[in-house]
Amino acid sequence: MSYQKKYVWAALCCLTLGLTSCDKSKTTTPADPGSAPFTTLRAPAYPLVTIDPYTSAWSMADNLYDDAVRHWTGEIHALTGAVRVDGAVYRFLGKEKYPLKALVPMAKDQPWEGQYTTKAPAAGWEKPEYKPTGWKTGKAAFGTKDFNATAAIWDTDDIWVRRTFTLSEFDSAVYLIYSHDDNFELYLNGQEIVNTGAAARMDILQKIDASLLRKDGPNTIAAHCKNTGGLAYVDFGLYTNSAQPEIFQQAAKQENVSVSATQTRYTFTCGGVGLEVTFRSPLLPTDLNLLSRPISFVDYRVTSADGKDHAVEVYFEMTPSWAVNSPSQEVVVNEGKAGSVAYVRAGTTEQPVLKRKGDNVRIDWGYVYLASALPAQAKLGIGTSAIAAKEQFSSQGDLAASAGETKAKLTESTPAMSYVHNLGKVGSKATSGYIMIAYDDVSSIQYFGDNRPAWWKQTKHATIDDILNEAQADYQEVKEKCDAFDKQVYQEALQAGGKKYADICILAFRQSIAAHKLTQDSSGNILFLSKENFSNGSIGTVDVTYPSAPLFLKYNPDLLKGMMNPIFYYSESGRWKKPFAAHDVGTYPLANGQTYGEDMPVEECGNMLVLAGAIAKREGNANYAKEHWKVLTTWAGYLRENGLDPANQLCTDDFAGHLAHNTNLSIKAIMGIASYGMLAEMLNKQDTAKLYKDEAARMAQEWVKMANDGDHYRLTFDQPGTWSQKYNL
Question: What region holds the Glutaminase A N-terminal domain (predicted)?
Answer without folding.
Answer: 262-491
